[in-house]
Structure formats: C-alpha cells, structure tokens
C-alpha cells in the first residue's frame, strides 16, 4: 500500500496545466502512441458488472489483449457515446473517457457504462505496465535525470521520481502522458490510492456517500470529497454539533486538494459547479497553474456568479487558508522566498501552523517590512490572497468562530466585498460592545492582510474612496501606503465623501492599535523602537511591550531634549508626528485615550452633542469633570499639543491663511516648542483670521488656563520658579497671579535679586498680555461677572477685550462682586498699560509714532501728552480720554499722581480715605480734596504739578471732573445740550455751566467743593432766569 500511495499521489502532485486530447491528430504532433495506453488499459470482460471488491480485483487480473481495445466498441457505453461524444473522438479511449466523465450535469449515462469507465480507470492506474508506458515515453528524460535512472524498477518508484522532477522534464510525450493520467484518477476518489482506507469511517459518519461500488455515479465521487472538505472546514470553524474527522483522513483531504491545485478540472465538484461560470468569466484563460481558480476567485462576488460555484470556491479558499500549498500559484511563486527566509523551518510551531496561509503571509510580510527582497511574483500572489481574506470574512475561521454573535446581531446580510468585516470593525469602533476574542480575531486578520501597505487590499475601502483618491490623492502612485495618509489628511474636508470617511476610520481604528501596521512608520522607526522600546521583529510580540504600547513609547521620546536623554531620529520623529496628527482627528484612533475615557466620552461627548473630530476638545472642556484615568491621558495629550500644536490637524487646516501670511516660518520648523500657537495668538485679529481658526485658538488658550503645564513655553521657562515660589498651584491663572505678584512686590521694594528668573519674567509678560485679550482667559473675573455680561453685554462678542470694555462702560450698574473685580483689573492696567488690550490695539499706530522709545509702564502717560497733537488718530484720542476719565475717578487708578502725592494724600485727605473701601472708586473725592489744597498752595511740588495738569485738562473737558459730572448729572444735558453734542474739548460745557448754573453750584455742590472757574464776584452776579 505504501508503494501504491507513493506512486499515485506523487503522480498527481505536479500535473500540467493544459488539458490534452490524445486524438489521431496528436500523433502527427508527436503524441503518445495509443497502443501503449490500450495495451495497459482493460481486462478481457470490460463491460461485465462489477458488484464488489472481489470482482474489481478479478477484473484487474484479467489477461490483456495484444491488440488495441476501444471503449467505443463496448456495448455498455455505445448508446451514451453516440448521444454525447463527437464521432472523431471514438477511436481514442482517453478522449471518450473525458467526454463521458465531463459531460453536462443535466445528462446521465447508464450504470453499466459508469462501471465500465471506472474499471477501465482502475486497471489503468494499477497495472504494472503503467510503469512500462512511462519507460517507453520518457526514455530521454530518465537518462537525463540520474536520480530516476537509479530507481529500482517494478515498484512504482520511477514514476514517483519523474513526478518529483517534473519541472526538469523537457520531453513532450513524457510530460503529456503524466498530465493525462492525473485527470483520470481525480474523477473518482476510490482511484486515489489509500484515500478510501483513511476516510471510509468519516465518509459514513458525515453521510458523504456510500463507498460501495455502483451506488454513486461518476459525478458523485467529486461530491464525496467536497462533502469531506466541508466537514473539515466546519470542524476548523468549530461549528455546533461538528464531527471531528480523523487525523489521517484530514491529511488525505488536504493532500487531494493540494494535488488538484494545478488544474481546476481535477477538483471534480468545483469543476461541475463552476463549469458555466468558467465559460462566463474565464473563457480566454488557459487552464493550468491554478489560473482558472484565480480567475474564478476574482469574480466570486459578481452578481452573475452562480451560488453553487461561489460556495465551492469559498470551500477551496478556506482550505487554502489552512494550507497555502493548495494554491498552486502561491506555492510556486513563493517557494524560493519561503526557503530563503526560513518560513517553513520554525521548529517551535506544529506543521499545521506553518502551513497556514496566515503564517506564510506574516513571515514574508515581515521580510518585506524589514527591507528584505521578496520576488515580485511572490508579492503579487501575496497581494491577491491578502485581498481575498479581506473580501470574505468566512475564510478566517477565528472570525467565524468568535464573531458569530456580532455578525448575527449587527452584520447579517452583508457578506459581499468585505462589507461584513467593515461592519464588525464599525461595531468594535463605535459601539464598544464587541467580544474581546472577536476584536482580537479582527486585529489578527488586519495584521495578516496588512492593508496599510496597500489600500487596494481592502476592496470596501477602495470602492468607497475611489473618487477621493482620484481628486485629492492623484499625485500619489496607486498602491502606495501614503494613500491612506492622504485620505486622513482630507478627513472632514469638502473632498471627503461620507462612505469613504466611515470605511477609512473603521480600518484606521485597527491599524492604530499596532504600530507595525503603518508600514511607513515601521520602516522609519524600527531601529528606534528596537533601541529605545526593546521591540522584536515585525511579526513577533512581547508581553512586556505589546504592539499598542510601542507607539506610546515612541512619542514619549519624540519631544525629549538632549538633556532629557535618548531621542528619536529625525525621520522617525516626523512619522510619529504624522500619526499624532491623524489621531487628533478622532479620539478612537488613540487606543489609550479611548480605553480610559470610554465612560466620559459617553457622558460628556456623545455623538449627539459633539461634532466629528471635536471629541478631544470636548474632553478638554470637561477636564475637571473627567475620571482620574481619563483626566491624566487628556492632560498628557494637551501638554503634548502645547509643544506641537500642529498635532491639531483640524485647527492647522482652519488657520492655514494666517499661518501662510504671518507664521509660515514657525510652521516649517520640525520642532515647534509652542512658537506656532504663540504666533497665532498674536495674529488672532488679523483680517486673514477666519472664525474657525479664531475659535480654535481661543479654545486652546482657554484650555491652557486649566493647568500651567498646558502652555509649553511658559512651563519650560517657569517650571523651576513655580516649584520654588508657587508650589501646589496648578491652574495657570493662579500661577500667573502668584508669579506676577512676586515680581511686583520685588519691584516695589527695589529688591536687587528678583526671585523670579529673567526667562520666566519674559514669558510671564507674554502670558499676561495674552490673558488681557479675552475675559474668559481670566476665569476668576469671568465667573464673577458672568451674570453681568448676560445682563449688560449680551450682544458683545468675546475677544479683542470687547466684553471687558463693555463692563468698564457699564461699571456703575455692575453687581458688587463684578464691580470689585473690574476695579482691580483697571488698577492693574493703569499700573501696566500694556495689559490694557483695547488701548494697545486702538492706539497701536500712535504708540509707534509718539511713544516708540517710551517704557511700557509709561505708555498711557506718553499718549496723554500727545493727545492734542494734530497727528493724533481720533479713535486713539477718544480711547485716551476714556482712560483719563477712569483715572480721575480714583487716585489709585492714576499711578503717576499716586506716586507724586504719596505724602499729601494721607496728610490732607485722611477722612476720605477712612471711609474708602479697597475695591470701590472714590468718585474723585481725593482729587477734589487735593484741588482745594492746590488753591491754598499747600501741596508738595510734585503733587502740585500733577494737580495743575488735572485742572487744566478738566477745564477743557468736563468729563474729566467726576464730581462735577455727578452733581450736575441732570443739568448738563438739559442746559448745555448743544455744547455736549459738539464734542469739542475746549471748555464750552464748563463755560455754559458758568453762565447758566450759578444757582446749581451754590445749592447742590458740597460745602468743601469750589470749582476753579468760580472766580466771579458773587455780590454783583445776577443768575439767569432759567436757573
């Protein structure tokens, strides 16, 4: 039996691709002499009914005729032959055999003819003269191949040797003879030596058909093997109530499938199931070398593909998934590469594992990713089978087994063209309810198929994104891995279509969970990962550094300084930044973030309340409300963004006009270190700034206020100062107040060695200036005045300090708490005018013209001195006047006066100070007090100079005298409306009041208040009738 098995199974292994008809015309072409076949083909009574194995043996032992015997002459098959086969084939036994056994499915032949044919084939394959025929037709070949010439004759070894060396056979007759015999044997499983013995019990148990002669026609014999193959597939998928096929039969089934890999005619079940489909889709494809199989695989999901053919093709594909050798073209194309990269010699794995298609793909993909050379032919075959696995989830037993529930619940009816896989990906990505084993099976499949290396592997993605690729990514070569990056860059843009967006994010969800699945990242960073993160080969994993943890390791080292230790190479850092930019588009592309923030995303940032791509911003907005794990990871990402704001791809896209006009130098730097965001803040009110960019920049500023670490430049400049002077303070606004208070106190006390470092003081200045632009950047002020803003400034836009200005204008109507905060802000701005955003913005050009050499602290004083210049801008002049009015309401808001009158104020105005509160204006009472002392010439020289200036200015503009305004609130608009409307600051309003309101001043002014203009003789003054 061993000899029989070796002879006949090896005979089938390397069969040729082309079906060859031994017709009479073939003789003229050097075909095999028909007598050679006929003399070894049939017993004396070929048509006798064969009832059991004994008769079969008897028939096989009958003496042979010396002359040629013809099947066409036998009575048992004459009628069928006449009906089904062309007459020119009758003289050739093999042509007749092929005609009858390959007939159409809806035609029948008699039982006697069936038995005659089977007896003919059995005798043909078991007759010792079979080897004699081989010797006859393969003379030259045997002499050329030394191993075959040395084989012992009469035991079948010669034929085995010839089959082993089939690729070296150049003799035409020899090649054709072996090819033809293969097709004969595969028409009936009982002719495959040893198969029946190994699988008899399994055939009976699975009800695949009777092994008794005569109960099945020739068509059913292919069905028996097909039934066993389905049983084997079901066992692999561990379907319910499955039967476990015996190991010997499993090997025999896989061996038969392997031997039929060359020519689809040899898979009898598939041949009959797909005969019409072959004519429809593969008419011009020559048989052999697995070409028909591949052609049919490519058309498997066509609408016109018959269901029975599609089912037969799926079964064969599933067998290929279990043993790659069942694919003739793949085994042949990759044979040398498999040997070269030792993909079949892993002694730690069982043979069944090595033979799996997935193992082959992973081994060879690993070689490709390591930069090794894999032949183009092999890579082409790998691409075909990777695409095949992505198209049909049922070819992956692990997915069938572990994802059955998800498929039934969410993805039923979506089998074609990879739709089921993408449905499962969507369930895993969006719903987060997938069984862990199912997700692992999907992750494994994505690694095996490696669609990140070539998007065309994913048919569903390819079809959905074709239009986007043609428009947005047409500059990239088809199949280039950068296509996926290009698609990600256009996510949420006008060029992206909805279906492509969904398929892309579904795939990227799994690619993002294993850094190796991005081939560009792996190629650029594999050395860094090995050096820093201690990774292994492409298809090797480590429990100490799982695939998802490698990228975290890489990006932690991407932004290190030289002082902080090992850093990434330049190329690797660029790729890490690219991945970070992509992950910022969707929080679910960050495995760590999604895992830790699943609950918070559902609670605060559901799809109903958050726009796509805005989930991270939403989490940042709710930072204080997040769970500790989620808050930590969001905080780390925000801290990273502060160093490299280009990670925020949507923001950078929105700010492109501003960046191109004002910040392109910073954007071109590979190392950002916060410069780009600082530039965007400084240019937030340029005409190129659009609403989206402004909102995004402001949002980031607001987020920065929650933790000083979120401002990279501030953190790096002031980290040591914060630890020393402001420990345990986290919020940025509190840190800024702490540090700025320290700076102010050291300055006022003339401390020689300031406690806050110079680099921190510089950055502190930047932070203070930025905070002055939007009330929301001062959380304490904003919260104190939230209701007042709603009541008095509801229609005023945030930004440009407009809300702050509105609160200043309506200060008398503000709530006590808000009023106090606004007063403190004004006091701070008067001390440091650079923090007065509206003043600096409106008077920007005038400052350049008049005050370019002035110190920042003296900016308002300089503007006041040049206020009446002919070159002064009217809007700036108006703003200066507003600030003067504010200053005259309280001496504390006039730093120059306060300093000049430091001794005079407590000396002459102490009763007023005793009644004052820290946060409310004195409505000019102290200044009025000083005016009286000025008239008495009792002030110090410096204070006298300042009061003189105030008197001169208020004489020209009544608004600069808050006491006058307060006491004459009703009379000024009633009696001097024309003068007020003229808005000429030449003292007209006061002159009007002098003439018309003597009674007003004598009756309503407080006893200690004497306006400077009351220098008239009261005895001779006649008040006007209107008073």
TrEMBL record:
Main location: Golgi
InterPro entries, A to Z: Cys-rich_GLG1_repeat (IPR001893), Cys-rich_GLG1_repeat_euk (IPR017873), GLG1 (IPR039728)
GO MF entry, a single one: fibroblast growth factor binding
Alphabetized Pfam families for the sequence: Cys_rich_FGFR (PF00839)
Membrane association type: Single-pass type I membrane protein
Source organism, top-level taxon: Eukaryota
One of the record's GO cellular component terms: Golgi membrane
Keyword Transmembrane appears in the UniProt entry: yes
Entry's localization field: Golgi outpost; Membrane
Signal peptide: 1-25
Swiss-Prot/TrEMBL keywords: Glycoprotein, Membrane, Repeat, Sialic acid, Signal, Transmembrane, Transmembrane helix
Cys-rich GLG repeat coordinates: 108-170, 244-304, 373-432, 433-495, 567-627, 688-747, 755-815, 871-938
Database matches in PANTHER family: GOLGI APPARATUS PROTEIN 1, SELECTIN LIGAND RELATED
Name this polypeptide is given: Golgi apparatus protein 1
